[in-house]
Predict the 3D structure of the following.
Amino acid sequence: MEVGDFTLYSAEGRRVTVPDPSGGIADAAGDFDGLLWRHSLELPVLGQANPHNEVEFATEQAAAMEAEIAYLLERESEQPQRVEVRSGAARRGLLRLRDMARWCAAHEGSRIAWSGD
């Protein structure tokens, strides 16, 4: 069950869409909460998000966020039996967030906001 999502905002405060790796466009990323909670102690940036809070990540944190996403993708590919990986939803969500982090890193003043439910 999803308990929150990440949303990308421009420096002007407008919600930003990015190409969705599975087709179309995306304006939020989620479906991988279980991965975050399982690895939160290993994730200095993404580990700040939890089901009960709201956090904003600045442009300066985007590169670290992208590295942590790569770490999660690598860790979970080592355990393909996990439901999140088998379903593909978690992987697609992480790929969307990776693209959002890349956009954020390239656009000064932008931010990624986490909102727990």
Notes: The chain has one domain: 4-116. The first strand starts at residue 4 and ends at 9.
